[in-house]
Structure formats: structure tokens, C-alpha cells
Amino acid sequence: MLDPKSFRQNPQAVADALKKRGMDLDLSQYTALENDRRNLQLETENLQRLRKEASTEIGAARARGEDIQELVDGVQHVGSQLNAIQNEFRKVRDELAAFLLTIPNIPDESVPDGMDEEDNEVIAEVGEIPNFNFEVKDHVDVAQGLIDTDLASKLTGSRFSVIKGPVARLHRALTQFMLDTHVQQHGYEEIYVPYIVHRDSMEGTGQLPKFEDDLFRLDTEQPYYLIPTAEVPVTNIHRDEILSLNELPKKYVAHTPCFRSEAGSYGKDTRGIFRQHQFEKVELVHIVEPSKSWQALDELLSHAEQILKLLDLPYRLVTLCGGDLGFSASKTIDIEVWIPSQNRYREVSSCSNFLDFQARRAHIRYRPQVGQAPELAHTLNGSGLAVGRTLIALLENLQDVNGRIYIPEVLSGYLGGIDHINLSSEN
RNA sequence: GGAGAGGUGGCUGAGUGGUCGAAAGCACUGGUCUUGAAAACCAGCGAGGUUAACGCCUCCCAGGGUUCGAAUCCCUGCCUCUCCGCCA
Fold first, then answer.
1. CA of A207 to C1' of B82 (A)
2. What structural domains and CATH numbers belong to chain A?
């Protein structure tokens, strides 16, 4: 959520800034509402003060043993008056709050203009795109039946998968490797969290109220949701807290499954496990003091990149343009790994600085100095990395003509010391 | 699933209709004292809204209700804990 105060002071400036997202914010209704709010709040508070003073006086009079009936009669009408005005005030206030909740974060100045993916800005290409002197197989073919989406359809439906044998083990090894790297080399605290959260958590990080359609909701009495990313439970760990300065920065790494309805992506990426309703991700989350969040974004990004470097996979970095930016992010840098079968780079991580946008929704604060008033912290997150897509990249980039998969040295230890997997001989 | 207890400031915990945004202790901050530290003593110390500001208002899990007045009484919900049962 944006700062209501600065929004109020200059809503037009916010509307202008949001044009970078290709968004046309309608302020007409807001202005009227805000006017009402001010008047109603003033009236409400005046009546409250009136009642408070009268009640105090009644209390004092009664203590003196005086007859209070006349005084009581005098204020009785204030109550009903207050009730009416207050109800109106609350309605307006809630409407304003709801409106503010639907406004996305303001893009950082450095975010390039543009409407969609096409306008994203490539900032680096790292590693060498492999030259195959044979026809490359995509990950489904490379896996020789060990990635089985038909079987998953039998169990559940489309966009799910069953992964078997050595490929399943490779998938698990990747997860372990990512977690260990971030914990041991990048100083993260590993954390295990619920995969189901309630509404408040989803609002805290910005998935709700606007993007209910993207989520899986459980049919429970209380609204419960499957997490679309570990960002939700992990960032919300510190909801409604005031952290002391020496607790910052918080750096968490969590491995969770992620569940996304993928509404609106019918027909997209239908082959294999590229786009799934359920996938595994290792997620990095930072909570930092405001002055350090841009530096934190660089670090977070480098930590995620490091995984691809160690796996010997070619990738590029892309700054998302205004139109492609996620709702809560002020700036996002995607890491895209080379996918040979598609002959292009695809996203494996999205590293974002949310500034105080999530912190304001989730009330994540810190105290700059003992005795000083609390301030909102800044939050960031990024995948380190999406495991399924990294598996795809590995299978495709490191295949040879005989159907063998080269195993990077860093993974070898997780797979009993082998340096390749021979999938063709598995069948 | 059955039975009971409870949700108050960073923590412990008092408060059962008025002067309570809230005792006391701990923690923390500043000061006195000390070569320094500790102890002792003195002082300070919740969050939010609104306003140009003084100030005013709100908040004792959440939402309703009773009342001139609610942390305190009533209703609903959520959560936590204990015991029994069941269970990975």
C-alpha cells in the first residue's frame, strides 16, 4: 500500500507516476471521498469529545453524591447522533482504504518505460549458449518418460506432473544444493513455513484483495489459501512487529511448493513442467532498513545468480519495464535461463524491491534508534531459484547426443558422486 | 472429537462500570555516584489517526450490543494453553 498521507497530499503525482505501468488511475471518486472523510472524521471526533467530557462530568457529579439525571438527559442525544455520523465515517474510511489497497506500487525511476515483456531491458548476459551439433531434445524427451504429465492428469488434471527415478532425485538434489548454498555461503537463515495461509497474510504481501483468481482457495470455514510463493508466509513472519535495528537485516531462505491457478494462461507453455499448478521453489526474503534496500536488491540478485553460475547454466538479467512490473514491486530484475528447446531465455527468478509497500500493509516496522518512533522496514524477495525450471534448464543444456546429462560438480555430492546421468539406458 | 482455562504495553502481570492508555516488576534510555563496571538512587519510556500547529480522537484479540460512560457487563468469531481420546 502507498502512503495514504503523501497520496492525499498529491494524488495526481501518484497517478502520473503510475502511467509508467500503463495504468490510468481514476481520481474523481477519490477526491470526493477524501473530502467526505475529512468532514466526517472531524464531526465524529468532536462528538466523541463532547460525550467524553459530559460522561466525565457525570462521573464526578455522582461521586459528589449529586443528582445526575439532568446531566444524563443532556447528553443522551449525543450518542445516537454520534452513532449515525460514525457509521457514515467508517463507511467512507473503509471505502478509501479499499481503494488504496488496489493501487499498485510506484515504479522506481530506473524502471524502463514499456507495456510488456518486449520492452524489458536486458542488462547482462552471462555464460555461453551451448552449440549442439545434434538436434536438441526438450526436457520431456530428454527425461525419457520420467517426467510424466499424463500420469498426473490421471491423478489430478492438467498442469501437474509426476517425476520419477533419477530425475526426481535430481530435482531433490537441486533443491538441497540451493538451500545449502544460500545458508552456507550467503548467510541466510533457513526456515520452514506453512503452505497454507489465511487472508491477512495474503493481504500483507499484496496477493489480495486484487488477485484472488490466481490463488487456490480451500473450502474451509475460514478462508485459507495455498501459497503461490514462499514470499507470503516468510514475509508475514514479522507482520505487526517492531524490530530493533540490530535484528536487521533479516535474510530468510525457504523451500516450499507453490500453487498457482494460472488463470488466463490457457494454452501457454502446455508441454512438460514449465508452467505448473504446483511447483517447487527456493525463495529468498530480505527485511532491511530503508536506506539499504537497493543494495540489498543487488545482493539478493547476486545470490540467485550464483546458483546458475555454479550449475554452469547460461542466463541473462532483465529489468522489467513498467508495464510488466508486478503489483507490489517498485523494481524487479528477472533472471532468465537459456532454454535450448525454445531457443530463448525464460524466467527462473524474479528479484524485487518492494520498498515499504508490503511493510505498510503488513505493519512490518523497525526502530531506527532506541526511544525513537518506529518506521516501516523495506522488504525484498526473489527466487533462488524456481526448482522445476532449473531442472528443465539442466536437462536441456547439459544433455549430449547419447541422452546423457552432465552433472555439475556442485551437484555431484548430492547424487552419490556421479558426474552424469544416463537416461537413455534407464528404459 | 470431549472437558476446562485464558487472550491487557518489549516481557511478567494487576485491574470486574467513571478520575484507566492502563498499577507494579523486569527490560530499555538518560543522569547522579564510581578509576571503570556493577549496585543504589533520580528521571524517562506503548501504537496509530488527524491537524500548518497547539491540540483533539482512537486502540486493553476481532466484530457487534448494553450504558451518559466499557479493558471491565452481554453476544458472536478467531486464537492460545491444559487434561482426556485419537493420530503421522
1. 37
2. 26-101 (1.10.287.40), 117-426 (3.30.930.10)
Buried b vs exposed e over A235-261: b needs ≥16 C-beta within 10 Å? bbbbbeeebeeeebbbbbbbbbebbbb
Closest Cα partner for A278 from A101, A399, A157, A406? A157
Q: Which three cell numbers stand for residue A59?
A: 462521573
CA torsion A373-A109-A212-A31 (nearest 10°) is 70
* Side chain identity, residue A416: G
Q: How far apart are CA A20 and CA A328, in angstroms?
A: 14
Exposed/middle/buried for A121, CB within 10 Å: 0-12, 13-18, 19+? middle
Q: Which of residues 83-122 of A touch strand B (CB under 7 A)?
A: 90
**Which of chain B's bases lie under 7 Å from a protein CB?**
10, 18-19, 28-29, 44-45, 47-51, 56-58, 64, 67-69, 78-79
ipTM: 0.84
Rg (CA), chain A: 27
Q: How do residues A239-287 score in pLDDT, each as one tens digit?
A: 888 888 888 899 999 999 999 999 888 888 999 999 999 999 999 999 9
